[in-house]
Design brief:
The complex is a heterodimer of chains A (123) and B (859). Chain A contains five helices and three strands, in the order ααβααββα. Chain A is mainly α and 123 residues long. Chain A is globular, with a radius of gyration of 16 Å. Chain A starts with 10 loop residues before the first helix and ends in an 8-residue tail after the last helix. Chain B folds into four domains: 56 residues, no CATH class; 184 residues, no CATH class; 309 residues, no CATH class; 194 residues, no CATH class. Helix content of chain B is 53%, strand content 15%. In chain B, helix 3 crosses helix 13 and helix 13 packs antiparallel against helix 14. Chain B starts with a helix and ends with a helix. The chains are: A mainly alpha (123), B alpha+beta (859). Chains A and B meet through helix 3 and helix 4 of A and helix 2 and helix 3 of B.
């Protein structure tokens, strides 16, 4: 843990989020997952286009843990699915708020793009 | 998988602890899923991903640490500046000293297979390194089997005409094997082939790139053009490339060495220097054995010239720089001392720093910062300081090398000046980085364990005894190294002083000299030569302000050689140490002009004519050697093939320079020299006058030009320069060591001051209690001062012992100053005392101002 990051940041101060961070937040929005679960979820949601490498994933998770976007959770899924070795991660309220804010920011940008005719769609 | 685990090991420890097992499990699963053709892609992807992120993770930490370090150093500018300065001095001194030492002593000479090049000498009794006679050279070359190739050369100088003004230039006669042996491939034209060295072959020469550029205007058509050397026209057949320098950096012209039948007759005429390359796989001992057998055979075959004469084989590398080797090694030793002192100082500074921030570290550790992480931060801080210091040090070295370049002997066949080379920079960088990391880890280790709780409670009394002892050891080492440096510097200074005090034996002030070497081609005729000397001397004597003028073969200190066997009638003519003398041919009045005291009889005069009585003026030691107790006048002896009568006895002079004892001297009339002895024709004009050299030189030039328009004048200078040159190199070298000694002293003072200040701070409470219990201020000051003295004494005593050993090692350059010279040691001890007191002053002053009440309250 780094001593300079002890202070909790505000959601605004974290924007814009790195794409990988946003994908991880999105993957965790549907439930607690371990690292491998996050990789699979991200791959599934991007139709297999985005495949996170282990280094990419865990360095992002490390930073997100420090920033307080996610926490490690002690709650476990039903025993049958559980894998003893795995650590499970869960969104924090800060994580949820940040993800929402980033989503809104991205939506605003889409709207801007539509308004200027850069992409087709309703204003 | 083992490979991936190895990749994982590249990540920072904190990351590994947290995620390594997760990543490993993930990768296992991915590998299972990516069976078959996807496997290779999986490995490639995983490797790239892990490598990249391992680096990024470190980079993140480094950035944080650097920010932190920058902030903490800005808060302590004094500490940062001192540490950087100390490192800069240590690195700078060493990088510079090693660059020059490497250049002179280590670097291979720029010739192909230079590690097999040797110099060959014949070894008559008493002279381990004597040049070879042409006949002996031919026989060695033909009979030896251990050499791949052998070549001869001899240095001379020649008058060059055919360009805008006549000039005297350094010329080397080389056998046809020599240039190929040295790998000299011509830039333009060709080099000599065996035909060029045949007697009667067309006269040719090869010039240096510098000569071609500076004197021939880099004209492409220069090859094929003709210049005259000593009046003999020679065709330029080639230009050697810029990097080629042989036998030294000053040589510009090479001409073929021709060994005709006549030159092969006299085996006592030794003038060839011989260079050879050992056959691949042959050791130098085998070569020595090979030549020993040949020399032995020649000694039996030609006892007159070769009796007792052996062979010397010496690495070419070692034949250079013998003279400067010891002093250069002393310089390297001195800079190592500086490095040691700098390290000790740095270690001491880091220790103090670690101690000062112990409580900060403990607080941060208590807040959850990992121990590895804290040590890493400390290491980063040290590295930042050392890197800054190292860079500054390289700047120091780059500035210092041109000054040190004066220590490079001119005789080295290296063309480019020494530079800060990559190897030295790399070594300095690695050495300092390793030192910094070691120091940082050693000093940062204590922020852990039970100690932490004590610090947090606030009961800390300024660190632990072990650390204090370490600092004291470091300081003692520092003082010891400084003492060694100072003693060495002191002894060398005393040696220079002694050399400068040596009486050269002639009158140095108010004399001026210039060289006019007559070309054999035009002055072979005795009358012509005699007339030249007579006209020039008459012309110079007529210049207002000139008191006396005379010619000699070569001035003392300019030439040390020209040694001949000389023995009274009846003695055998064997060249040995006991019967040689230095021979000079001089014009009338030379003894008086140079100011050599005339003891008995007369000097060379106009009365000594060719065809008349052959005479000689001898030095006192010559007379004493052969006719002890007598005045020597009227005695006869034989030298250079003629029997001569002693007409005068003069005092001895230092022919071979101030530092060396000389053979006895013989002065023979210039009018009684054989025209075949061109090398001994008088060439140095000495003028005693009240005029300044600047006023005198143009008038002499005019006088000589009126007599021989083509005759160049070279080396004009005052005799005082000649003598002061004798101590110049030594002076440079000693100044270097003195500067290093002064640096060491400053570093040691900083160290003593730092440690005492720290001790005073750490013991402020104790001092307060003492004063509250009635100790006077002066007794507190005494306590601190005596602490300082003890610190210095602990280093000074072993330092003095080491100094004595070091001084014995460099005895050869001490010019008779005893290695245990009392004055030097006493002075150094005195300096140490002063340093201890200076270093203790401020801490003692602060100790005396401790407020007992405040100290006791704060407890």
């Amino acid at each position: 843990m780094n001593i300079f990051l002890l202070m909790t940041p505000t959601p605004e101060s974290l924007l814009p989020l790195p794409p990988v961070t946003f994908h991880i937040l999105a993957a965790l929005a549907t439930g607690d997952r371990h690292g491998y679960g996050i990789m699979q979820e991200v791959a599934a949601r991007s139709d297999g286009k985005l495949r996170l490498g282990a280094g990419t994933l865990y360095r992002s998770i490390q930073r997100m843990l420090e920033q307080g976007l996610v926490v490690e959770t002690s709650a476990r899924p039903p025993a049958r699915e559980d894998d003893e070795r795995r650590r499970y991660y869960r969104l924090t309220p800060l994580g949820i708020a940040t993800a929402r804010l980033e989503a809104k920011r991205l939506a605003d940008m889409i709207r801007l793009a539509q308004a200027t005719g850069l992409v087709p769609g309703k204003v | 998988m083992r490979f991936l685990r190895w990749l994982l090991a590249l990540f920072p420890a904190g990351f590994r602890q947290e995620f390594a097992s997760e990543i490993e499990a993930d990768l296992r699963r991915q590998r299972r899923e990516a069976a078959g053709p996807g496997l290779a892609a999986f490995w490639a992807r995983a490797t790239g991903d892990l490598l990249r992120h391992a680096l990024l993770a470190h980079w993140d930490i480094l950035r944080q640490d650097l920010r932190f370090v920058a902030r903490s150093l800005v808060r302590r500018p004094g500490y940062a500046a001192t540490a950087v300065l100390v490192t800069a001095i240590g690195v700078g001194a060493n990088a510079a000293a090693f660059s020059v030492a490497d250049y002179v002593l280590v670097r291979p000479l720029p010739f192909p297979a230079a590690d097999r090049l040797v110099k060959l000498w014949q070894h008559p009794p008493g002279y381990p390194e004597m040049e070879l006679s042409p006949a002996n050279y031919r026989d060695w070359k033909d009979a030896s089997s251990t050499f791949e190739s052998m070549g001869a050369f001899t240095n001379t100088a020649a008058n060059l005409t055919g360009l805008e003004r006549p000039d005297r230039i350094q010329t080397t006669l080389v056998g046809p094997e020599l240039l190929p042996l040295l790998g000299a491939n011509p830039l333009l034209g060709r080099r000599f082939d065996p035909n060029d060295a045949e007697p009667g072959a067309p006269r040719t020469m090869v010039v240096s790139e510098r000569f071609w550029r500076d004197r021939l205007g880099a004209a492409p058509g220069a090859v094929g053009s003709t210049l005259a050397l000593d009046g003999i026209p020679r065709e330029i057949i080639g230009v050697l490339p810029a990097g080629f320098a042989f036998p030294d950096r000053r040589t510009d012209v090479w001409v073929p060495l021709t060994l005709d039948e006549a030159s092969l007759v006299d085996r006592g005429n030794n003038y060839l220097e011989v260079l050879a390359r050992l056959r691949d796989g042959v050791t130098i001992e085998q070569a020595r054995a090979d030549l020993a057998v040949i020399a032995d055979r020649l000694a039996r075959q030609y006892p007159a010239a070769n009796e007792g004469t052996g062979a010397t084989v010496q690495w070419l590398r070692d034949s250079y720089s013998q003279r400067s080797r010891l002093l250069l090694l002393a310089l390297v030793g001195a800079s190592l001392c500086i490095l040691l002192i700098a390290c000790a100082n740095l270690g001491s500074l880091f220790l103090a720093r670690a101690l000062a921030r112990e409580s900060e570290l403990v607080v941060r550790a208590a807040l959850g910062a990992g121990r590895d992480r804290l040590i890493r931060q400390a290491v980063t801080e040290c590295l930042v300081i050392v890197a800054a210091g190292g860079l500054a040090g390289l700047a120091v070295a780059a500035a210092a090398i041109p000054l040190l370049a004066r220590l490079v002997p001119e005789s080295l066949p290296l063309h480019d000046p020494p530079t800060l080379d990559r190897a030295v920079v790399g070594f300095a960088a690695v050495a300092t980085a390793v030192t910094a990391i070691l120091l940082a880890v050693l000093t940062g280790r204590r922020a852990e364990g039970n100690h932490a709780a004590a610090v947090l409670r606030g009961g800390q009394r300024g660190g632990n005894a072990a650390r204090e002892r370490l600092r004291q050891w470091l300081l003692a080492g520092e003082v010891a190294a400084s003492v060694v440096l100072l003693v060495t510097a002191g002894l060398l200074l005393r040696a220079v002083q002694r050399v400068a005090e040596v009486d050269p034996g002639f009158q140095v002030d108010g004399a001026f000299t210039v060289r006019t070497a007559l070309p054999a081609s035009r002055y072979l005729d005795n009358d012509l030569r005699d007339r030249f000397y007579r006209d020039v001397l008459a012309g110079v004597a007529a210049i207002p302000g000139v008191e006396a003028a005379a010619y000699t073969t070569c001035l003392p200190m300019v030439c040390g050689g020209m040694i001949w066997p000389a023995s009274p009638d009846g003695d055998p003519q064997i060249r040995a140490v006991g019967n040689t003398a230095s021979v000079r041919f001089v014009t009338p009045g030379y003894i008086a002009t140079l100011g050599i005291p005339l003891l008995r009889g007369r000097e060379v005069t106009e009365a000594d004519r060719r065809g008349g009585q052959d005479v000689a003026v001898v030095s006192a030691s010559f007379a004493e050697r052969h006719w002890p107790g007598e005045d020597g006048l009227g005695k006869r002896f034989t030298v250079v093939g003629r029997n001569r009568m002693v007409v005068g006895v003069v005092a001895d002079i230092r022919v071979r320079g101030l530092e060396r004892t000389a053979e006895p001297q013989l002065y023979l009339p210039a009018s009684q020299i054989d025209s075949a002895m061109g090398y001994y024709w008088p060439q140095d004009l000495v003028v005693r006058s009240s005029l300044t050299p600047a006023a005198l030189l143009p008038q002499i030039e005019r006088t000589i030009a009126a007599i021989d328009r083509d005759q160049p004048l070279t080396s004009p200078r005052a005799l005082t320069e000649l003598v002061s040159d004798q101590t110049a190199t030594r002076g440079d070298q000693v100044r270097m060591v003195v500067v290093l000694g002064a640096i060491a002293l400053v570093l040691a003072t900083i160290g003593i001051h730092g440690l005492l200040s720290y001790l005073v701070t750490a013991r402020a409470r104790e001092l307060g209690v003492r004063m509250a219990l009635g100790a006077s201020r002066s007794s507190v000051v005494r306590l601190v001062a005596s602490n300082g003295l003890r610190l210095v004494a602990a280093g000074a005593v072993p330092g003095l012992i080491l100094s004595y050993l070091a001084a014995r090692a460099i005895r050869a350059v001490l010019f008779g100053v005893p290695p245990g010279d009392l004055i030097t040691y006493a002075t150094v001890l005195g300096i140490c005392l002063v340093v201890a007191l200076v270093g203790a002053t401020i801490p003692a002053w602060r100790a005396a101002r401790v407020d007992p009440a405040a100290m006791i309250r704060s407890d």
